[in-house]
UniProtKB/TrEMBL annotation:
Top-rank taxon, per record: Bacteria
Protein name: Metallo-beta-lactamase domain-containing protein
Catalytic activity reported: 3',5'-cyclic UMP + H2O = UMP + H(+); 3',5'-cyclic CMP + H2O = CMP + H(+)
Signal sequence annotation: none
Matches recorded under PANTHER family: N-ACYL-PHOSPHATIDYLETHANOLAMINE-HYDROLYZING PHOSPHOLIPASE D (PTHR15032)
UniProt domain Metallo-beta-lactamase: residue ranges: 116-312
Function statement: Counteracts the endogenous Pycsar antiviral defense system. Phosphodiesterase that enables metal-dependent hydrolysis of host cyclic nucleotide Pycsar defense signals such as cCMP and cUMP.
Organism: Paenibacillus campinasensis
Length: 380
């Protein structure tokens, strides 16, 4: 009886923890789920990818993952904190053209034709509901004091995973952001965290919104969603197209490779610059995260001019070397004759009518970690 009572108490504690701990967000309301049932990409209480995407793993996969965890890879983390270039808040926003600042992983600040937009602004120290237990940010901090940020015109989220949608970051930004644009269902999380409903616009794939002369289009991705044990795929995931009077930008969010890239390119390309995920991949989950070579092909599919690789140099979420993604994507870009830019964290990249500032195409990470193997040195 005592054992049963202890087990029951543990179950009750876990249930209340999942229900009331704020970083988990909030379940999509029943009324909204009923509305989702009318959508072609929602079935059996879950959103679906355009391309059938299996994420099931067999016993052999789980055993191989366990083996990788136990034996580890000493190169999964950099040997020292990554350097940052401080961002001057007084320089925001840039009035003409495009300027982008990468904060590591997938967090970006886009200054485009007078508007300032944050893309997946995950500024926390760890992509975990319990940061003290999660792996830590490589750069230890971000290159800007959020309290000094000017008014941000928009925040765009691609999906609700912890390395993209962060509770503490939203709480710090909520008084500085005019409007939030998110895929379907993410509004529930934001409202629980204090964002007024009227300041949130939810989108299905191919829906669009207008923002001060910009057009924001929610476009497909090949991924999944969920923040707790019981909400897998209950909210939508997406990529985003941002169209200005003179410029076009594509943000991949998280995505496995698929035909949606070509479809997006045919509808909205060509793009002046693409922000494409290139890290946290593994053959065991290749359907939901691209290999770096696929990153370059996806860039070509959407008809991009220049590629800025993201989803690396932030956190360890896979088993590859921490700097392998950028090395592989550079190698693939050279083979396909793709212009690629690799700025330091916090380093602003200004897009002119012809080229990026050449200083933002350095190989800065090679000075951080001397454990680079011979095959990578050959790519220099």
């Amino acid at each position: 009886m005592i054992i049963l009572l202890i087990c029951a108490a543990i179950i009750v504690f876990i249930a209340f923890f999942l229900l009331y701990y704020p970083p988990f967000g909030k379940q999509v309301p029943r009324a909204q789920r009923i509305q989702f049932q009318q959508l072609s990409n929602f079935k059996h209480r879950r959103f679906l990818n355009q391309t059938p995407t299996s994420m099931s793993m067999g016993a052999a996969d789980f055993m191989s993952i366990l083996k990788d965890y136990l034996y580890g890879n000493p190169n999964r983390n950099p040997a020292s904190p990554l350097p940052m270039k401080p961002v001057d808040p007084a320089s925001i926003p840039q009035k003409e053209g495009i300027r982008v600042t990468w904060f590591g992983h997938s967090a970006l600040m886009l200054e485009m034709e007078g508007s300032t937009v944050l893309l997946d602004p995950m500024f926390g120290k760890s992509p975990s509901p319990l940061p003290v237990l999660g792996n830590q940010r490589y750069s230890k901090d971000i290159p800007i004091n959020l309290e000094e940020l000017p008014v941000i015109d928009a925040v765009i989220f691609s999906h609700d995973h912890y390395d993209h949608l962060d509770y503490d970051s939203v709480r710090k930004l909520k008084g500085k952001v005019r409007h939030f644009y998110v895929p379907l269902g993410l509004g529930s999380h934001l409202q629980r965290w204090g964002i007024p409903k009227e300041n949130i616009t939810e989108h299905n794939w191919w829906d669009s919104s207008a923002l001060d002369g910009l057009q924001l289009v929610c476009t497909p991705a090949r991924h999944f969603s969920g923040r707790s044990l019981f909400d897998r795929d209950s909210t939508l995931w997406s990529s985003w197209v941002i169209i200005g009077r003179e410029s076009r930008v594509y943000f991949s969010g998280d995505s496995g490779y698929g035909p949606h890239f070509r479809e997006i390119g045919e509808k909205y390309g060509p793009f002046d610059v693409t922000f494409m995920e290139c890290g946290q991949y593994d053959k065991r989950w290749a359907h939901i995260h691209m290999m770096p070579e696929e990153t370059v092909q996806a860039h070509l599919d959407v008809r991009g001019r220049r590629l800025l690789p993201i989803h690396w140099a932030g956190f360890t979420l896979a088993f590859h070397d921490w700097n392998e993604p950028v090395e592989r994507v550079i190698r693939a870009a050279r083979q396909k004759q793709v212009d690629i830019v690799t700025p330091r964290i916090g380093e602003p990249v200004t897009l002119s009518s012809s080229v990026f500032d050449p200083d933002t195409s350095s190989v800065w990470w090679r000075g951080i970690d001397r454990r680079v193997n011979g095959s990578i040195r050959e790519s220099e």
